[in-house]
């Protein structure tokens, strides 16, 4: 893929990630503030709900994949499971071990996990 096309694809991925992240953060904040759920489980719940949004939008918008849903779906779940593990580890480190506020911790975690997700989805989940 030529460099301009890759940049365009990353910009699309970033836009989709913003939407999925807004959903993720809405769940996170709602669970922490309204339901008094601890930050780490709330972050993981938000990650899962945002992941559903991410799959659909990345499939149809960013990667325009024609890979069958069954195949792309299980690959997506594997990539998201690694991201889930990273989210668990990072949020536990930042919030529970270092005592950081949950929202700044989630922002750093989101940035780190987004890099993993883009590379893995581009070349494995939705790749030809």
Your description of this structure?
The model has no long low-confidence stretch (mean pLDDT 93). The chain contains 4 helices and no strands. By secondary structure, it is mainly alpha-helical.
The major sheet is characterized as: none
Q: Give unreliable regions as ranges.
A: none
Distance between the termini: 12 Å
Order of H and E elements: HHHH
Q: Nutshell version of this structure?
A:
By secondary structure, the chain is an all-alpha fold. The chain has helices spanning 3-34, 39-62, 69-97, 102-125.
Features of the shown structure:
85% helix; 4 helices; mainly alpha; single chain; 128 residues
Topology:
Blueprint (H helix, E strand, L loop, with lengths): L2 H32 L4 H24 L6 H29 L4 H24 L3
Helix pairs in contact: 1-2, 1-4, 2-3, 3-4
């Amino acid at each position: 893929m030529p460099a301009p096309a890759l940049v365009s694809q990353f910009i699309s991925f970033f836009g989709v990630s913003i939407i999925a992240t807004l959903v993720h953060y809405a769940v996170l904040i709602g669970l922490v503030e309204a339901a008094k759920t601890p930050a780490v489980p709330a972050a993981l719940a938000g990650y899962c709900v945002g992941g559903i949004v991410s799959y659909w939008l990345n499939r149809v918008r960013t990667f325009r994949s024609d890979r069958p849903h069954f195949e792309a779906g299980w690959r997506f779940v594997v990539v998201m499971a690694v991201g889930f593990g990273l989210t668990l580890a990072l949020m536990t480190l930042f919030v529970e071990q270092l005592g950081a506020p949950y929202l700044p911790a989630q922002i750093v975690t989101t940035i780190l996990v987004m890099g993993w997700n883009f590379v893995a989805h581009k070349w494995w989940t939705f790749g030809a």
